[in-house]
Amino acid sequence: MLTETKIREAIGGIKEPFIHKTLEELKAIQEVKIKEEKNHVSVKIAIAKTGTSEQLQLQTEIVNTLKAAGAATVGIRFGELSEAELNKYRTDVSDAEDKELGLLSPRSKTKFIAIASGKGGVGKSTVSVNLAVSLTRLGKKVGLIDADIYGFSVPDMMGITDRPAVENEKIIPVNRFGVKVISMGFFVEDNAPIIWRGPMLGKMLNSFFKEVEWGELDYLLLDLPPGTGDIALDVHTMLPHCKEIIVTTPHPTAAFVAARAGAMALRTEHEILGVIENMSYFESKVTGEKEYIFGKGGGDKLADELNTQVLGRLPLGQPDWDEHEFAPSIYQEDHRLGKVYTEICKNIISSVNN
Question: Is the pTM of this model over 0.90?
């Protein structure tokens, strides 16, 4: 015959999933009731955080334990531990939350920088990969999410041929030039098209934050899809403290369209670090003459409109390809554009730290 004492003894040794102390140690078994005629046991359990997958696992463990002890049916109600009790173990709870939330934890020290543009074709992804590599060259620990889920291009741009590994149920990002990279392109076979609705895209992006083992990062860069669609909205929701860089060309129309992405960032209270003007001009190797193929003034106009700075201007130029380290969009450190990216990154670091 089951008694309250036997029930408490049976489940008292089970560990609470966040604090990792036993239910008995935490005095978490708040109520026990027995209906002898039906051999039904109901208990009320207090834990650190309700409504989680850990709660479901604990529920299953308690039910199985009590049925093994002789209960025919089991009912469980969950409540939350008192602040006084939680404060005794606050570090343990915070560590558990940090592990669950990953980079999205409020205690994360990672700086998030989204690279956005109003339209495609302005070189946003080229800028993203080179900023990531240049920050690494300056001694920073950097991750890069290719968040352009429909138009992923980062793996090809960086010359990545490996796929992420999985260890302890966590995805291990691919390391290239010291940058930890994750992209939808790693999970699609034969460059197949992605046909997803908005909510599915948000879930994938959330997985990139929570299910990837990023380790310690100083900066996480996000190469956003062009425009102001679902992914951009999800980023603004998930990362309230994300900073943004807007990429444009000097053409007035490109700058006009890019202003929409900047306005969206401002409305969601994301700080705009600045504007990068790509394809600013073409400089002849023969004469040294500069030709402004896409016009002039787009970057300055956009920066004025968004009340921010121009972080740098990038001329047209082809990276030097190395057969051993093939990466068709990465500029070497001593390349003239590589030097420009280094200066831009120094400006970014200064702006973020101020």
Answer: no
